[in-house]
Amino acid sequence: MKRVHVTGANGFIGREVIARLREAGYAVTGSDLRASPDVRALDLRDRAAVVALMGELAPDIVMHGGAISGAMLATDDPALMFDVNVMGTLNIVEAMRRTGTARLVFLSSNAVYAEADTRDPVPEDAPCGAADAYGASKLAAESVLRAYAASFGIGVVALRISSVFGAERVTPYLISQTLDAVRNGAPIEVTDTRSNMRQFVHVSDAARAVCLAVAAVREGFTPVNITGGTYLSEEQVVRLLLAGLPAPALSVIADRGRHDDGRVGPLDISRAAALLGYAPSVDIAEALTALARPIVPAITPTS
Ligand SMILES: NC(=O)c1ccc[n+]([C@@H]2O[C@H](COP(=O)([O-])OP(=O)(O)OC[C@H]3O[C@@H](n4cnc5c(N)ncnc54)[C@H](O)[C@@H]3O)[C@@H](O)[C@H]2O)c1
Question: Global pTM?
Answer without folding.
Answer: 0.95
